Amino acid sequence: MARTRYQAGANRTKVADLPAAALRAVLREGYTRADLRSDILAGLVVGIVALPLAMALAIAVGVAPQHGLYTAIVAGTVVAALGGSRTQVTGPTAAFIVVLAPIYIRFGLAGLLLAGMMGGLILIGLGLGRLGQFIEFIPYPVTTGFTAGIATVIATLQIKDFFGLRLDRTPESFFDRLSAIWQARQTGALSELGVAAVTLALLVVLPRIGRRIPAPLIAIPAAAVVAAIVNHVFPHHAVATIGSRFHAVIGGNVVNGVPPLPPLPLIPWHASGPGGAAFVLNFHTIRELLPGAFAVAMLGGIESLLSAVIADGMANTRHDPDAELLALGIGNVVTPFFGGIPATGAIARTATNVRSGARSPVASIVHALTVLVAVVSLAPLIGYLPMAGLAALLLLVAWNMSEAKHVVHILRFSPRGDALVLLVCFILTVVFDMVVAVSVGVVLAALLFMRRMADITQARLTSNVDADRANPEIPHELAQQIAIYDIAGPLFFGAAQKAIGNLATIAAHLRVLIVRLDRVPVLDATGLVALESALATLTRHGCTTILAGLQPQPASVIEKASVTLRPFRVVISPDIPSAVTAARALLEPAGTSERPP
């Protein structure tokens, strides 16, 4: 069974087979009562863990906590049912905070929901275009750099509630935000700091005592108890809670905290705009939202597929990246119509799901139902959760997300180029945004890769004239007439000029030049142009060029370019011995050699 579970999804499927790829694979293999029991238990655990996280993440974005809960319910169900990963848990994540918070400030809730829907459409296109595997080409220093940058921004966003600061505004820029926090430093409250410190201490210490019960299940309720005691004993130093911070109007009545209602249908662009004003939907607004939607799609796709890879390693499964992207896109299109913010695969919740014994996507669906039941039946109790406690939880999430040990390891032991890419991505994420960071980081990493590949490509001219560079493949009687130019490595635009640039000059005195290409796996357009230029120069000098040992890809490029039909003195040979024989035949009419007995 383990082998079958690992191989499911390993082969490329048809587009029609992408939806619900993981769930259908599970059903084909046979879904037992024991599997259902394991999925229910795992889903209950993850659902309880997701409850405070979903609210904290929504609050960090700037929206009411119920929108994070609706995201966990709707996206958690849709993506699990339609996705390509067996144990992935989808919902709001910390990585999205830095992308969504600026969108909410500029465009309000309606703009945020619309950006999520647009990002979902982009993800659907990526999934249908079978582009899931291209996530693997994003270098590790890039992902580590922007992840650490995101964690830094998330941590700064929690300072306000952790210390109980009263900010007049929440600036969009990182440095403006730090300035606003510094200016409000005198407004902090010891009661808020005390609740946050107790929560953080429990979150850090409890896992060291035992991991059977997730730390948030104890730490967050304990924080609520401490906050309730403080609010009762010291009403002048009251601790802010979800109930005191957020309100909703239901049937003309004001409800404190989270409304005890399931996610209800709504039109995303009919929600409130910035500052509670009306939202105006037009082409200009859609164009303004497009960069944010692209960021949602890119970050969502990257994080979701990275989470699926981690789940595969823990559960010995194999996910379908294209099916997962398609399902994530559909989930992000559907979720805004129920008041949910953008969602992606949640690494921590997915790991908890696997450790709790999840066998199939049913566990994630149970997790969503658990959150739904909690919203409907426990809404009054949720209102007692302190904002400082949720801020402490997100601070720990940010620390774990930063992967500080990996960052230090790369900076200390990796090549300087990789360390530079990491630092650039980190700084750009903090100062600007993730899209800029990933774009610049990938370009830098690509340039670094091209330089390394160019260094790998080597070229050497050998003949029997110089004993130090003697080549036994060249007959002695032809030593003055021919030579072998050996190229090893890809001939692409980063290495072509280095390998071929001096070819014409160093071989100008020869009658025949054999260019050995059996160790050249790739020839691109730049390499072809450089080769044709060298062939033209050699032809003008009266030198015939023999291309020996062409591999399939370079041979195809040269054939399509009709190099042998051009006015070049060029011959194609399958290997060096054949090339030497061809060279001897070219030189014999001039009487330069004698036929061996």
Description:
- By secondary structure, the chain is α/β, with parallel strands linked by helices.
- The chain has 2 domains: 2-257 and 270-447, no CATH class; 457-590, Transcription Regulator spoIIAA (2-Layer Sandwich).
- The chain has 23 helices and 9 strands.
- It has helices at residues 2-7, 21-29, 33-61, 65-82, 97-128, 140-163, 174-183, 190-209, 215-233, 242-245, 283-315, 321-334, 347-355, 362-382, 387-402, 404-413, 416-431, 434-456, 496-500, 503-506, 525-540, 552-560, 576-587, and strands spanning 90-91, 247-250, 253-256, 344-345, 458-462, 482-488, 512-519, 544-548, 570-573.
- The strands form 3 sheets. The chain has a 5-stranded mixed sheet, with helices on both faces. A two-stranded antiparallel sheet has the order 1-4. Strands 2-3 form a two-stranded antiparallel sheet.
- Strand 7, helix 21 (525-540) and strand 8 (544-548) form a beta-alpha-beta unit.
- The radius of gyration is 32 Å and the shape is elongated.
Keywords:
Transcription Regulator spoIIAA, alpha/beta, two-stranded antiparallel sheet, 9 strands, 597 residues, disordered N terminus, single chain, elongated, disordered C terminus, five-stranded mixed sheet
Question: Number of folding domains?
Answer: 2
Structural class: alpha/beta
Strand order of the largest sheet: 5-6-7-8-9
Task: Write down the overall geometry.
Answer: elongated
Poorly predicted regions are 1-11, 465-470, 591-597
Main sheet characteristics: 5 strands, mixed
Instruction: Note the beta-strand portion.
Output: 5-15%
| Share in helix | 55-70%
- N→C terminal distance: 69 Å
Number of DSSP helices?
A: 23
Tell me the total number of β-strands.
Answer: 9
Q: What is the overall pLDDT average?
A: 86
Evaluate the radius of gyration.
Answer: 32 Å
